[in-house]
Specification:
Length: about 180
């Protein structure tokens, strides 16, 4: 979309990243084709969002910084996500109020979670502005591999040997990507 070209070595390092994700997905014990297709669609949408935010943050005509972009995007997220939550999550308001009545700490947990989400989005915009949308997507794949390892350690989620090899290949690809970006500068 931006007609920005990377060095051929950068594109080559994306092969193990993508291959690792595909292998890890195929090795998932609870793999479901529909879920995989939805995951691909979500990844494509996330990539489009990253490219568009990169354009907005680097455009001379727009003059948006990370804070301003967050100011514009947060209300739009509420407009789309709040109705979906109310429709898809049965009695979510009643359950939340009941939890808050039983234990006031839930309010602090929600505030803490909201604060973390704010900083995640702000960091996301800053990374996009100072690197590129492609780097943000590669880091997202690395984050996914780390999240799987954490879920194994904390929740004892089952992972196949094939899945572990896929995640290892993804992390290896991310390291190669990082090295390729350093060399291209």
């Amino acid at each position: 979309m931006t007609f920005k070209r990377e060095a051929w070595l950068t594109y080559l390092t994306l092969v193990p990243v993508v291959t690792g994700v595909v292998i890890a997905s195929g090795g998932e014990p609870s793999f479901h084709l529909f879920g995989f297709i939805i995951c691909i669609a979500a990844t494509a949408a996330r990539a489009l969002k990253s490219v568009l935010q990169g354009i907005l943050l680097s455009s001379e005509g727009e003059k948006l910084n990370s804070m301003n972009l967050l100011l514009y995007m947060a209300p739009m997220a509420v407009v789309f996500l709040l109705p979906a939550t109310l429709i898809m999550e049965e009695n979510v308001v009643g359950i939340t109020l009941a939890l808050a009545r039983d234990d006031v700490k839930i309010i602090w947990y929600l505030l803490f979670n909201s604060t973390l989400a704010y900083f995640v989005h702000l960091t996301n915009f800053l990374v996009t502005k100072h690197t590129s949308a492609l780097t943000l997507q590669v880091l997202g794949n690395a984050k996914g591999a780390v999240a799987v390892v954490v879920s194994i350690l904390i929740f004892k989620n089952p992972v196949s040997v094939t899945g572990m090899m896929g995640y290892a290949l993804t992390v290896f690809g991310v390291i190669l990507y990082s090295e390729a970006k350093k060399r291209s500068k």
